[in-house]
Design goal:
1% helix, globular, mainly beta, single chain, Jelly Rolls, Elongation Factor Tu (Ef-tu), domain 3, 42% strand, Methylamine Dehydrogenase, Chain H, six-stranded antiparallel sheet, eight-stranded antiparallel sheet
């Protein structure tokens, strides 16, 4: 008797495999479309070069000449990418003219020691030296370039690495060089708490002037374009402005330092965005007026169409709002109708209402939780996010999403690195995807997907630190843990290697039985139903194929094998190609599971409804 193997879309993992009959139980790099499983698309490298640091945010916009700009920040730098070239626009923190002969080298060492009193730099920060004179084999070209600080000796002395070991020892040379310091880097690993000991030891200098850019939390950037220009900021740090007309080699500058900026322009903010509807620059968790103290519950907005005017008057629309529930603003997300603002205790709706109040604010929910700064994603008119132990959606009201893989995700989750969770959308497939760190990883190494069209959940393993949907990019864009950007759903292979490698895509069902498992069954044939789509350069001897496996089981608690106490797997494994009509097998048990997987290049598949030929059978 030919029996179709039909399963509900999505994976059910929070109950036993036997209790989840009629569903899929495990998968990797597989999605559901129109209720059927298929392997995900591959990915390709965007840039020939690697960037420095770990990306936690990206933003794409176009200038007035329709040239594309991609801005993204890492824990070390901020870049603009265009035309497959990287431009470092990291703002400058300070400039200094060093005292006479402030450089020192030791023969046989590639460390250059630099003396600059009260330099204020942190380890791993970047400094550019100029006008320095060389000595021995240490040439001026080796000195007068950008360096990364590798050691902080004290508040006056630090060390950088040279490309060669010095051939001489000299404790005082270099002439009178200049030093240009980029803003200090942030943390790449989340540190709990914000009090004594919360930061990395020795990341700043004892007794040095406090620098708000040396953070106790994970370095996260926010950014938005103001016309063809870019406004960006470090979370709980300064706000910066990049002027497109200044050219790609120009660096971002402090918004408050631009000519014409008011003295009340914010210098600290948790997040910055530009309201699309009314063109206000909005700073969340900002400092008030000319003070330097951050108010974590304060929202400030500039005059309409003017990012430099922040003092409210009767003739402008600048102003501020202060939220009442919670201790700090966590994140703001702009939707088509409103700006949603989460605090650590409530969710608010912020809407443009026009003069004289400009914006109105209303609390719409309380007691909501969230995993981190980037755990939110907007899709159509809804916003989805990952809470502390559940998933939520807002579509006019807050609702918890039923999730059959919730325990699977949160019981293998590194809560100490929850701020690294990154949510994104793949609108082509109606998907919201969350990348998160598993229990034994300090970086995102897994993902979970909610398909809001099929109401299906599935998961897998993939290391990505940031994500952006395909519009206006040609494909979804992601940042890897290997300091590279990738276009996803582009091709069918793993483009992180050269040549590209295969995707290890698989899906496994829950058990299929006969007569509620009361009878043994004998399976002697399977009729596969697999459709392939491969890249155009597939060779004739590289025909796309999947491997199908049927595994037999006698009891829910027994091993997969020949008897109740079997320790060896009883299974039938066979390749399935495009024109495979049927496969003859011999398999006996109370239940069987179906597994479909592929692990070769140039292969993409869609699984239909395979059928197995099974009949009641007795034990021998």
């Amino acid at each position: 008797m030919l029996t179709p193997l039909r399963f509900k879309p999505g994976v059910v993992r929070d109950v036993s495999a036997y209790a989840a009959k009629g569903t899929w139980y495990d998968c990797n790099l597989v999605r559901f479309r129109l209720g059927l499983p298929e392997s995900m698309g591959g990915w390709q490298q965007v840039l020939p070069d690697q960037y420095q640091g770990t990306v936690r945010a990206m933003h794409v916009w176009f200038n007035l000449n329709t040239a594309r700009r991609l801005g993204f920040g890492t824990h070390l730098k901020y870049y603009i990418e265009t035309g497959q070239a990287l431009y470092d626009i990291t703002p400058i923190r300070a400039t200094s003219t060093l005292s006479s002969d402030p450089l020192a080298v030791t023969s046989g060492s590639n460390l250059l020691t630099v003396t600059d009193n009260a330099h204020g730099a942190a380890e791993n920060a970047f400094v550019t030296l100029s006008s320095a004179t060389g000595i021995g084999n240490v040439t001026p070209a080796m000195l007068n370039t950008e360096h990364q600080i590798v050691n902080i000796i004290d508040g006056n002395i630090y060390q950088v690495e040279l490309p060669v070991a010095a051939s001489v020892t000299d404790s005082s040379f270099g002439g009178t060089p200049d030093a240009e310091y980029q803003i200090n880097p942030g943390l790449d690993t989340q540190v709990g708490g914000a009090g004594w000991g919360a930061g990395a030891w020795n990341t700043s200098t004892w007794g040095a002037e406090f620098d708000s850019n040396v953070e106790q939390t994970l370095r996260v950037w926010t950014q938005d374009n103001f016309g063809e220009d870019l406004i960006f900021n470090v979370r709980d740090g300064n706000i910066y402005y990049w002027d497109n007309s200044s050219g790609l080699t120009a660096r971002g500058v402090e918004l408050s330092g631009i000519g014409g900026a008011e003295s009340s322009t914010p210098t600290i903010a948790r997040q910055v965005l530009v309201s699309d509807r009314d063109r206000h620059v909005i700073a969340f968790g900002a400092n008030q007026g000319t003070t330097t103290t951050q108010d974590p519950m304060l929202i400030r907005f500039s005059d309409q169409e003017d990012p430099l005017t922040w003092t409210p008057t009767a003739t402008n629309t600048a102003g501020d709002l202060r939220l009442g529930s919670g201790s700090r603003i966590v994140r703001a997300i702009e939707t088509k109708r409103e700006i949603l603002v989460w605090t650590d205790a409530a969710l608010y709706s912020m809407q443009f209402i026009g003069p004289p109040f400009t914006f109105g604010i209303q609390q719409i929910s309380s007691g909501v939780t969230q995993q981190g700064f980037n755990c939110y994603a907007a899709a159509e008119d809804r916003v989805f996010w990952m809470g502390k132990a559940s998933f939520f959606v807002y579509s006019g009201q807050v609702q918890e999403l039923p999730c059959p893989v919730k325990d699977y995700v949160f019981k293998d989750f590194n809560a100490s690195q929850s701020d690294k969770v990154f949510a994104g959308t793949i609108s082509e497939f109606s998907e919201v995807i969350w990348f998160y760190p598993s229990a034994n990883s300090d970086e995102n190494d897994r993902y979970v997907v909610y398909n809001y069209q099929d109401n299906a959940w599935y998961f897998g393993q993939l290391s990505r630190t940031a994500w952006m949907d395909c519009c206006p990019e040609p494909f979804p864009l992601a940042a890897g843990t290997d300091n590279r950007l990738y276009y996803h759903e582009s091709g069918v292979n793993d483009g992180s290697t050269i040549p590209p490698g295969p995707l290890n895509a698989y899906i496994e069902s829950s058990p299929v039985d006969m007569s509620e498992g009361q009878s043994f069954m004998f399976v002697n044939r399977i009729l596969p139903d697999v459709t392939f789509s491969s890249s155009a350069d597939t060779l004739a001897d590289e025909a796309p194929r999947v491997t199908m496996t049927l595994q037999a089981q006698n009891f829910p608690g027994s091993a997969l094998g020949n008897s109740q106490n079997a320790t060896t797997v009883r299974q039938a494994t066979f390749p399935v190609e495009q024109f495979t009509e049927q496969v003859h097998i011999r398999l006996r048990g109370r239940t069987v599971r179906l597994r479909v997987e592929s692990n070769q290049v140039n292969t993409r598949w869609i699984l239909g409804t395979p059928r197995i030929d099974m009949r009641p059978d007795g034990r021998r």
